[in-house]
Q: What sequence folds into this?
């Protein structure tokens, strides 16, 4: 289910939204490496609670497209590359991008209200956790109907949450808020009719 066997062109055609998000995040990261102008872009989009409080509300969205280093980008994009396609196929393009964007947005909003004024952050992790949360909703509805999905996604969610709390320099608030947002949206998206139609594919 989560093993990708498509070649590049097949992947792009089958999962255009995931492909676009991968290209956008990687492209922006490469741009931020350019001396001078890259740093300006990074600072312009950085999630900064103090600046948000002073009216720079775009910083509730832009942090989810910025990353603090190569390993940060690699972890998030690998998760999107592996888990995103199945959710895009099941939920559809519009619903997938809704989960992704709203989970990232509410993760950043929660960060603004929970973290101190001096707190800064970047990363797509809140949106990625939203994808996990949506899968959690699917597992909730299917219960024992799809044991393979349950056996894979539940350990992934548990391990991801544990690593959120034991790791360093991690935006715990965005992770948990993104996960809950994805789960709640998933509950509204995945009803028995949708699940039956997916099972027939």
A:
């Amino acid at each position: 289910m989560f093993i990708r066997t498509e070649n590049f062109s097949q992947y792009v055609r089958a999962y255009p939204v995931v492909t676009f998000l991968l290209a956008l995040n990687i492209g922006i990261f490469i741009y931020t490496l350019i001396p001078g102008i890259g740093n300006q872009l990074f600072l312009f989009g950085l999630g900064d609670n103090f600046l948000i409080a002073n009216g720079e509300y775009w910083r509730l969205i832009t942090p989810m497209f910025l990353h603090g280093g190569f390993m940060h980008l690699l972890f998030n994009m690998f998760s999107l590359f592996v888990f995103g396609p199945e959710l895009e196929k099941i939920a559809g393009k519009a619903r997938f991008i809704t989960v992704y964007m709203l989970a990232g947005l509410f993760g950043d909003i929660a960060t603004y209200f929970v973290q101190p004024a001096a707190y800064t952050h970047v990363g797509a992790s809140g949106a990625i956790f939203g994808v996990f949360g949506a899968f959690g909703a699917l597992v909730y509805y299917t219960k024992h109907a799809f044991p393979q999905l349950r056996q894979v996604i539940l350990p992934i969610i548990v391990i991801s949450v544990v690593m959120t709390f034991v790791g360093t320099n991690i935006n715990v608030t965005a992770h948990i808020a993104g996960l809950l947002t994805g789960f709640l949206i998933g509950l509204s998206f995945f009803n028995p009719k949708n699940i039956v139609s997916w099972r027939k594919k």
Q: What stands out?
A: The chain has one domain: 8-199. The first helix runs from residue 8 to 14.
